[in-house]
Amino acid sequence: MNTATIDNTNNKQQTVAVIGAGVIGVNCALELQNLGYQVTLIDKDGIGLGCSKGNAGHFATEQVFPLAESSLIWQMPKLLLDPLGPVSLSAKHFVKAIPWFMQFFNNMRAKLRDKNTLALQALNKNAITHFKSVLKAANAEHLLTQNGSLLVFETDNLRTVEAMHKHYKDAGIAVKLLDRMQTIALEPNLHDNINYSLFFTDVAHTINPLAISQTLADVAKSKGMIFKQASVSKIAQSSNGVTIKTDKEAFETDHCVVACGAWSKELLKGLNYHLPIEAERGYSYSLPVAENASASLSRPVASAERRFIITPMESTLRLAGTVEYAGLHTPPNYKRAEMLEDNAKFILKSLPSKDTVNGEQEAAESWMGCRPSLPDSLPVICQAPNHDKVFFALGHQHLGLTQGAITGKLIGQLVSNQATEIDVRPFCISRFN
Ligand SMILES: Cc1cc2nc3c(=O)[nH]c(=O)nc-3n(C[C@H](O)[C@H](O)[C@H](O)COP(=O)(O)OP(=O)(O)OC[C@H]3O[C@@H](n4cnc5c(N)ncnc54)[C@H](O)[C@@H]3O)c2cc1C
């Protein structure tokens, strides 16, 4: 047990409540339980059932560039006008989203973008190494395959692809530019439409994102972590610790970590912190794949032009992507999931047929998740500036799976008052307050 977690005056084990059992909260909970804290993990729904459930499963460490990029300004009108295009902004949500978009546009400035790129590079650098060691300790190494990923291009404009290749190389990413023959040699099921690809050799994927959260939570439980299904309505810090109020009870804890993803705003507001978070809703469409089917892939394949990704999962081929700004509570529009299949027909030679798995009818599964997105594309990982017993681990936008284990590590270091492995100042909530 790490002595940093023991209160020497009465030898009492320190307690931590982690609110939110997505991939971020679960990684924080496991790390803190490993450090010797008595952890209570709380979620309104269950473990891993929020945005961490149906995502693309890509440990996308090559994604070190913030989403706020100036070329988007010119593309936005076209992107937004197509109701089933890759980006959609609901008319009802438009006014509410204006302040977020103002900050998003502000983050396109070169100086801020460069600064945010450096912060993302630092966070992603050892993200896969950390995840591998967490999964190894959980005897769940099979949940991560490090086989690289492809970004495929339908354009025949080699210059465009070369420019992007250079952009990634300059950012220190391990990447190779492949022509059509080389690309198809790697993934024979790719369509002849594909002219080039960027092969990110060091990245990884999982065959089951939900199993990652649930397996790690099971390991933490076996070490003494308690899970409570409840909705937290209030957090208050006093001289004794932190009071957590849920729909079922109120209880005291020594420390608290808020990891509520896209739902974090209200809890932070109660503590007087402003969090400009948007639910960047995305969809996935999982097509069941028969065992040994030729319609699958061996690594994630993302389309540069169509802005979605295809990942081979345990028993499905998962098509995922799209961005929809419609708030947390609007019902899903599953047409956005289904349209991914039409796009996939331009990327793959053959798609799994939906009704032939073991001779049984198996339906494709549509899913919607709310990415917790901040306008600068950086998460918040910090000790609350005015509440020393409260910590935040939220806002991981498109990269929550990728950054789950490194976030857990950093939160463990912050709660136990150790030096952090990387500089966490860029991730402090103070940048919005
Ligand atoms: C289509 C799509 C594809 C994606 N693909 C990838 C990918 O390939 N790689 C990658 O790295 N990331 C990907 N992401 C992003 C990733 O899924 C998210 O960043 C990540 O899941 C966020 O994790 P989280 O734990 O912060 O949030 P969540 O998983 O949403 O967990 C938050 C939890 O908090 C709980 N909660 C909220 N409020 C309360 C409350 N008041 N009381 C109690 N519990 C509460 C919720 O029930 C929820 O379970 C994708 C996202 C989408 C939508």
In short:
The chain is α/β, with parallel strands linked by helices and 433 residues long. The chain has helices spanning 23-34, 71-81, 94-106, 110-125, 127-137, 158-170, 180-186, 209-222, 265-270, 335-344, 404-415, and strands at residues 6-7, 12-13, 15-19, 38-43, 58-59, 87-89, 149-153, 175-179, 196-200, 204-205, 226-229, 232-237, 242-246, 250-253, 255-258, 278-288, 301-303, 308-312, 316-325, 365-373, 380-383, 390-394. Strands 6, 7, 8, 9, 16, 17, 18, 19 and 20 form a nine-stranded mixed sheet that branches. The chain has a six-stranded mixed sheet with strand order 11-4-3-15-22-21, with helices on one face. Strands 12-13-14 form a three-stranded antiparallel sheet.
Can you lay out the helices and strands and say which pair or pack?
Layout: E1 6-7, E2 12-13, E3 15-19, H1 23-34, E4 38-43, E5 58-59, H2 71-81, E6 87-89, H3 94-106, H4 110-125, H5 127-137, E7 149-153, H6 158-170, E8 175-179, H7 180-186, E9 196-200, E10 204-205, H8 209-222, E11 226-229, E12 232-237, E13 242-246, E14 250-253, E15 255-258, H9 265-270, E16 278-288, E17 301-303, E18 308-312, E19 316-325, H10 335-344, E20 365-373, E21 380-383, E22 390-394, H11 404-415
Parallel strand pairs: 3-4, 3-15, 4-11, 6-19, 7-17, 15-22
Antiparallel strand pairs: 1-2, 5-10, 7-9, 8-9, 12-13, 13-14, 16-19, 16-20, 17-18, 18-19, 21-22
Helix pairs in contact: 1-8, 1-11, 5-11
Bound molecules: flavin-adenine dinucleotide.
